[in-house]
Design goal:
The protein contains 8 helices and 9 strands. The protein is an alpha/beta fold and about 260 residues long. It has a single domain, classed as NAD(P)-binding Rossmann-like Domain (Rossmann fold, 3-Layer(aba) Sandwich). The protein has a 7-stranded parallel β-sheet, with helices on both faces. Strands 7-8 form a two-stranded parallel ribbon. β5, α5 and β6 form a beta-alpha-beta unit. α3 runs parallel beside α4. Bound molecules: NADPH dihydro-nicotinamide-adenine-dinucleotide phosphate (NDP) and 2-hydroxyethylsulfonic acid. The site of 2-hydroxyethylsulfonic acid has 7 residues, from loops. 2-hydroxyethylsulfonic acid binds next to loops.
């Protein structure tokens, strides 16, 4: 059963990877979309494709989620143009670097904390009141297995994803008594632009991450997001962990050699 046709779905980080996968998956169900990221041209290109293929309403909005003032302006635009989203997918995020914490780069740390934690909070704080005023909606946070178990060099990225998991639980508790649902989707290794960003464009390091096994794709994760969003209104998945079959946790990953 498709419960998402005609609903408004807001996706942050829609210009690539999991966010782009979500945009395509929800478009295929006939949802209308608000696509957010910094790279406006990519959003516009995705918008053109989705409108042509599915005849849905798609709005592209260039936004850096770290800029709290700009997120405030965006939420006013949202209120004026679509009232409130039915589904908010808090996906924009990144890892930057994989150094030991005592050798870590302060700029990398700021990027991760400002985007994955403060950016997610900026969007949620500005957008969720619109949903509460309608007493409906679903917040879906993209966490990670990095929010369940720390791994070498993951330090600050791990901390941001532990924070995301805590915030997911906090949002669920603070919204008790409303009809709003709150869910976290926590993926393992997914081949997107994630590693290119983490390793600052070093293609050899990127290749090594995905060597010898079949990782998730952005579309695989999007399918899980869609499943959770499409559940009946009395059903809420609080946390869904999804990994490649070859992976069992951040350490246990089977690679075929050769
Ligand atoms: P990608 O790099 O492919 O996509 C990241 C998206 O986030 C892009 O659309 C990027 O758009 C957007 N983004 C980054 N910074 C900002 C910002 N300041 N403001 C607005 N948008 C921003 O990676 P993934 O798709 O893999 O990552 C999506 C989420 O999934 C992240 O939260 C990541 O932590 C999480 N995740 C990823 C896993 C993986 O293995 N790939 C596993 C577990 C979780 P733009 O640059 O145009 O702004
Ligand atoms: C992304 C997956 O294992 O690189 O969150 O942290 S991992």
């Amino acid at each position: 059963m498709n419960r998402l046709e005609g609903k408004w779905v807001l996706v942050t980080g829609a210009s690539s990877g999991i966010g782009e996968g979500c945009a395509k998956r929800f478009a295929a169900s006939g949802s209308n979309l608000v696509l957010v990221a910094r790279r406006e041209e990519r959003l516009n290109e995705l918008k053109r494709t989705l409108v042509d293929d599915h005849r849905i309403d798609v709005r592209a909005y260039a936004l850096d989620v770290r800029n709290r003032g700009a997120v405030g302006v965006f939420s006013k635009w949202l209120a004026d143009h679509i009232t409130a989203p039915d589904v908010l997918i808090n996906n924009a995020g990144l890892a930057s670097g994989l150094e030991k914490f005592f050798e870590g780069d302060f700029e990398d740390w700021d990027k991760m904390i400002d985007t994955n934690v403060k950016g997610l909070l900026n969007v949620t704080r500005h957008v969720v009141p619109l949903m509460v005023s309608q007493n409906r909606g679903h917040i879906i946070n993209i966490g990670s297995i990095a929010g369940h178990m720390v791994y070498p060099g993951g330090n600050v990225y791990n901390a941001t994803k532990f924070a995301t998991r805590a915030l997911n639980q906090a949002m669920a508790i603070d919204l008790v008594g409303t009809n709003l649902r709150v869910s976290s989707i926590d993926p393992g290794a997914a081949e997107t632009e994630f590693s290119k960003v983490r390793f600052h464009g070093d293609e050899n390091k990127v290749k090594e991450v995905y060597r010898g096994f079949r990782p998730l794709t952005g579309d695989d994760v999007a399918e899980a997001v869609h499943f959770v969003a499409n559940a009946p209104e009395h059903v809420n998945v609080l946390d869904l962990v999804i990994m490649p079959t070859a992976q069992r946790n951040p350490y246990v990953l089977h690679r075929e050699e050769g």
